[in-house]
Structure formats: structure tokens, C-alpha cells
Amino acid sequence: ETGVTQTPRHLVMGMTNKKSLKCEQHLGHNAMYWYKQSAKKPLELMFVYNFKEQTENNSVPSRFSPECPNSSHLFLHLHTLQPEDSALYLCASSHGSPLHFGNGTRLTVT
Amino acid sequence: AQSVTQLDSQVPVFEEAPVELRCNYSSSVSVYLFWYVQYPNQGLQLLLKYLSGSTLVKGINGFEAEFNKSQTSFHLRKPSVHISDTAEYFCAVSKEIGNQFYFGTGTSLTVIP
């Protein structure tokens, strides 16, 4: 049990589908993050929310849309994705340092 | 800006041998330093962290790291590795204030029986 729960663990979607990734943290943290992890590439920070307000958007394409309804929940809405978006999507939370990660959602875009 | 360099992308080592995974960082401000481990199909798990105080930090699973400010390094060490230590290891830094975290590209540790 990591304290950060991500669902689903695996997702296969077509390029025209719409799906959402969910993240929930039970640690009382105030910041939540989405990272993308692709093979042979460094972790890419996508979005940061601090007290439900988005504080970071690292030039992420608009086909990825984050939502943070409260400081315990974070969503990543996906639509019209490309095959190169296939990756492990990691959610994390923090209250200062360090980051606490979930187990990720393995996304495959066909 | 902060950056993290892990020079070794792959490190093979025999079981029960010692190992050192190297991490160097660059920063114009004081930072916190971390090592994470990632097992297959899992997220990143915190191994150890340096926030302040003693420069030798002990973590889980028998790992330790030493913060060297003059060399801007935070190398990870274990005196005797086990098969179960086979995993990907990531070094990370963050500024003392704020929630910006910067990761290295990772080092794949393979323990050979």
C-alpha cells in the first residue's frame, strides 16, 4: 500500500476513444502531480496541482486534460491520443518533500 | 535551474558484491536529494532522502548515500547486493522551497547470481 492509488492499472484505448485516469491519495498531502514515463526517457513532469490550483503545465498537448476536484483526487482525461502517448503514467503527491508515487497506469494507444 | 545526471545507465554486479550508483546534480540554490527505486510494473518507491544534517544517509534495504556538496554528488551505495535489488534506480533533487522535483534518467541495476 503506497498511500497513492491509481486506477486502472492497465488501459488499452483506440485513438478515437475518451478515457480517464484516476488518482487518489490518502496521505493528507496538498500537492499532486502527473508524470509520464516512457521507455529509455527521463520522467516527464506533466502537471502539478497545489491546493487544487494548477501551478505547472509543462507544454502538455491539449489531448491531455487534468482535473483536480479536491486535494485528495486527481484525474487525467484523455481524448484522441496518439500511439506515441503509450507510456506509464504516474501520479504522485507531496507535502513539501519527498514525492510519494502510485503504481502507475500502463497506457497503450492502438 | 536544477539538473540531475546519472552517468551509468546500466550497472551489472554479482550477488553479494558491493555497488555504487552515481548521481551528480547542478543547482544554484540549496536542494534536497533523493533516491528512488522502481521495480517492474510498479511506481517509484523512496529509498532515502537528504534534507539536512549528517551527510551520510541510511535508507531502506541496506542502501546508503553520501551528500558531497563540494562535488555536488549524492552517490548510492550498498556493501552487498541481493538478487532482489535488481531494479531501476532514480536520483532526484528538489528546491528547499516549492514543489519542483527533477529526476535523473535512471540506472538499471542487474544483480547476477
Total strands of chain B: the figure is 12
The biggest sheet of chain B, with number of strands, parallel, antiparallel or mixed sense and barrel status, is: 6 strands, mixed
Model regions low in confidence, pLDDT < 50 over at least 5 residues of chain A: none
Strand content of chain A: over 45%
DSSP helix fraction of chain B: under 10%
How far is the N terminus from the C terminus of chain A?
A: 31 Å
Shape of chain B: globular
Q: Cα-atom Rg of chain B, whole angstroms?
A: 13 Å
What's the total helix number of chain B? Answer: 0
**Taking all residues together, what is the mean pLDDT of chain B?**
92
* Secondary structure category of chain B: mainly beta
Q: Could you tell me how far the N terminus lies from the C terminus of chain B, measured between alpha carbons in angstroms?
A: 41 Å
Q: Of all protein chain pairs, which has the greatest interface, and how many residues does each chain bring to it?
A: A-B, 26 and 21 residues
